[in-house]
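Quick check before the chapter quiz. The format below is the same one you will see on the exam, so make sure you can read both the input and the output lines.
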Amino acid sequence: MRRYTFRPIDDSRGEKEAFGWINPRNLLAENFTFDEVADGLHLLLGVRRDHKAFSPVLFRARREELFESAKKERKLQKISRQQRLALEEQLTIQMLREISPQSAFSELLWDMNSGIVLMGATSNALCERIQELFEATFDLKLRPMYPALIGANYIATQGLEAEYFLATEAGR
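Here is the expected output.
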């Protein structure tokens, strides 16, 4: 779990996103133990996603200003592609440092006895990311369970197929 714990965005590396496990009882704690999120056979985990983004229009304007300044400073007519890329990376890091991340949180409850995992997320993209994080962390596959699948499974395990079909036919 420690390997996939949330780590803040590292501006110096030009990172724009951070994603990982957190203790849902202490959203800002950078470290936590298994015992802090476990309660018997239940595990309550949080997921945090921080994302930084800046205006591409503002970036392009500041980039052009930076290019012109570099040409004047170095007395060049044109700067090389390598120089442009280095200046763009420098500007990206600078602009990322200037903005605060937008944070999103979600929770996950795992009943380790039954193997059922409940997610407090509804977006398909977020559910898939949490599923990937869970599978990478615990080396276990998750299988989505929708209300209709849960109902069908209950009907099958209770031997209620005949009653269900009779009830649905009567309801037509």
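If your answer matched, good. Residues 2-53+100-141 form one domain.
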